[in-house]
Amino acid sequence: MKKLLFDLFPLILFFVAYRVADIYTATAVAMAASVGQWIWLKARGKAIELMHWINLVIILGFGGATLWLRSEVFIMWKPTVLYWLFGSAIAVGLLVFRRNLVQQLMNATGQLELPDAVWQRMAWMWSAFFIIMGCLNLVVAFSGWFSESQWVSFKVFGTTILFVAFVVGVSLYMSRYLSHDSESPSSSTDSKP
Q1: For the chain, first and last CA: distance in Å?
Q2: Cβ-based neighbour number of residue 26 at 10 Å
């Protein structure tokens, strides 16, 4: 829970600053919060995850462009670029490098035993989810059907709810195979769909 709140910290501050001021103030606050997270991790001697680095670079780049050019378009593109980057990285890892980044991230300790076919499906599910989330952000941000305020609410609450629902779904999917592992050692090679 601490990690989730830590990761959501810039997003929460972005939402509060937007409600108090405007999109430019909210962007500056999110940028400062992301830099603050990085400084806090460094000061505590904690490892900075690749996702934090990527998010920091993207928020500073797109946030900087938003503030410098006084155009909210850049900050509205930021989630899509981030999601598409993650989705593409997972797909390229599978197709080009034959590496399953989802398996590497979720099974860093080596204690999560799942069949290779399940890891493959999960990687494709995550890749598709990120690509779809990027497209969904574009619809809410630029279709003209939603206001800027609605986009901010979607960015903070809508995406969080969708992520939680997706993670619950993936966990339920994984649990089918984890429960088989605990019942029978031979079921770890099972590749049921």
Answers
A1: 31
A2: 23
Cα 12 to the center of its chain, rounded Å: 15
* Domains of the chain by residue range: 1-69, 72-193
Cα–Cα distance between 32 and 10 in angstroms, integer? 8
Distance CA 25, CA 133 (A): 25
pTM of the model: 0.83
Give the integer Cα–Cα distance in Å for 77 and 168.
27
Q: What is the pLDDT of residues 39-92, one digit of tens each?
A: 988 898 888 778 888 889 999 999 999 999 999 999 999 999 999 999 999 999
Enumerate the H helices of 96-115 as residue ranges.
101-106
The span from the CA of 29 to the CA of 193, in Å, is: 45
Side-chain-facing half-sphere of 25: CA atoms under 13 Å: 9
Cβ-count burial of 129 within 10 angstroms (0-12 exposed, 13-18 middle, 19+ buried)?
A: buried
Tokens of 142: 């630029």
Q: Which residue has the tokens 């997972």?
A: 90
Cα separation, 133 vs 140, whole angstroms:
11
Distance of alpha carbon 109 from the chain centroid: 21
Tokens of 75: 């900050």
The proportion of the chain whose per-residue pLDDT surpasses 70, expressed as a percent, equals: 88
